[in-house]
Amino acid sequence: MNVFKFVLIFCLSMQCSIGNTQIQFGEEQVLSFEDLDFVEVTGFFKKDAIPNWSTTATDEYIEVWMDGNGGVDASDGIYFVELNANENAALFFDIDTRNTSSIELAFDHRGRGEFGYDKLQLKTGGPDTDLEVLDNFTSSVDGWNTFQFEIEIPANQAVTRISFEAVETASCDPTIGNFLDNIRYTLIAACADDQKDSMFNMYPNPAVDLIQVESRGKDLAYAYQLISMDGKLLAENRIEGRKIGIDGLEAGQYLIVLLSESNTVLEKKLITKL
Ligand SMILES: [Ca+2]
Ligand SMILES: [Ca+2]
Question: To 5 degrees, how large is the angle CA 218–CA 226–CA 5?
Fold first, then answer.
């Protein structure tokens, strides 16, 4: 294996394995309304009772259905939801998308009314932004449909909201229709080729004795780790004056990991010491 190939593979694997423990790149996560505190009940519940989920409803209620209620079975497990309890609102969850290039999303949708179709709208964006409409998805009463969608994550969007809204119901009442269950998502890591869009710039590279750290976002890097190409931690220090000293290092390639105050990984960069 030539040196370049080794460096690239090593860098990609570090990018995908070092990081905040909340980020599970490449592993499918399932939000299926099964981790509820209440047992075997259909009803309206305050959003705090539904782990991971929230709603824009002013009364904060989310409508949970149990297997068999109204003749409808969950598509996964025993619980599912109907969009809208008492008022027309959005049901959503937020994902930590630092260092993420895209999300592979899948969900199951089913209509309720006997005549016609239910339609939901998928939206996404940062939690503090006007969410972007990705697409509409339509299902009838005849059974659960699985829909899949790949969502591109803009660089520096640290948190991504996934939102579902009822836009049409066969019942003509926005609070009656649009069942949702078995939401799966997989985060795809932003790897080495995304460094041009990263939050931090380290220069010069190659470097001789000092590396300057420049931040393009609100995050500040408080400390760094210097890691050898065979994965050994060589140094871990606070960053003083946005500079990292590499005076005593042997010439070669190293990985520099920038850390926040809580030791969360902010950025990783391959640096060459001359
Ligand atoms: Ca379920
Ligand atoms: Ca309802």
Answer: 100
